[in-house]
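Appendix B, Record 12. Input sequence as logged:
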Amino acid sequence: MKRQFMVLLFSSVAAFVQAAEVNVYSARQEELIKPVLDKFSADTGIKVNLITGKPDELISRMASEGRNSPADVLISTDVGRLYRAQTQGLLQPVQSELLTKAIPAHLRDPQQHWFGLTLRARPVIYVPGKVDPTRINTIEDLTKPEFKGRICIRSSDNIYNQSMLAAMIASVGEAKTLEFAKGLVANFAQPPTGGDRDQIKAAAAGVCDIAIANTYYLAGMFDDAKDAAAAKAVKVLWPNQQDRGAHINISGAGVAKYAPNKAAAQQLIEYMVLPEAQNWYASKNHEYPVLADVAWSPVLQGFGTFKAEQLPLVKLGELNAKALQLMDQAGWK
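Logged structural output:
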């Protein structure tokens, strides 16, 4: 498979060798993306000009720049932002045999405006000895009265939580999702505050017994001396393994609507799903590769295998507004 991908990519590079640079707007932190971009430049001779920032700020910048935007590629950490950029007319469709072969259909836009580059899962994280894992078979089980005052999670402003609720709406409907949101809010240990790592650290510190967070945050804590003890104090539980599967999301990319270097932009996105790049994401960033035959990092392997949702991720964008509405009705601050 690797040879097939390399042939497809470098035949494309040969055809568009004139493209000398590509401008990337990335919502990913520089240290989490630059090594792959540097390798792309070394392999293709195409210079990468990188601008990093918060996803909504980058989308607003592209919108204000309009036809004069230098952006060639937008990289985001959640499908919700990619869908937002698409609906604002900031991305263009890409026809790529390599991308459609490499990336499962539910992890990319049906109209090819954006493509998943890595997977991130959002399971239940619990403190052993304080929580009986057999009492949690589904994410909905977190609304049980026995978990009152025991759950930590980020605010409703967080796109990861919005996407989690959007996925639930698509799977079980609005009524059951609202019931879940109300029950979860009733079981909060504290008003939502901080990021995913903060929820995990709160659980380890005894503020709560259960956290909901993306796996790559937990995995990264094992590599951080100041957070490693907290990471070792919790375990991962995969919910909904007997029905729809655990919630997943993506980091992904799309070609900007007015990309001045469209060919180079497409080459870069194609490069990022080659086995070498996918292996780097898996081993260094602790994210799940979109290529099934690329190994997970040892830390991710330690979290165990799991059944993931197979929902077309475009639904997470389509249902984002409804998810926010239900979270507001539930009192999720």
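Residues 5 and 98 are 6 Å apart (CA to CA).
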